[in-house]
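Handover notes (outgoing to incoming on-call)

Open items:
1. Thioredoxin-like protein: sequence verified, structure written out, both below. Nothing else pending on this one.
2. Nothing else urgent.
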Amino acid sequence: MLMEEGIKKLIDQEIRPALQSHGGDIEFLGFDEASKVVRVSLTGACGTCPFAQETLRVQVEQVIKRSFPDVAAVKREG
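Thioredoxin-like protein structure tokens:
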């Protein structure tokens, strides 16, 4: 649970403000401890943007993996 809380905090403090500055947002949906996969939903402008997958890879996954190298992937749902 400590890793999940850390990921949530990172999203709130670093990732969410960057996405909100472009009219989007991110919702943390969960972290699977067994597979080490973080699940998120991109909303607002990010939810419909044709570059959402790139945003997920560069602005979300890389930031999370830099702080939590054990994370295997970040998956977008919704």
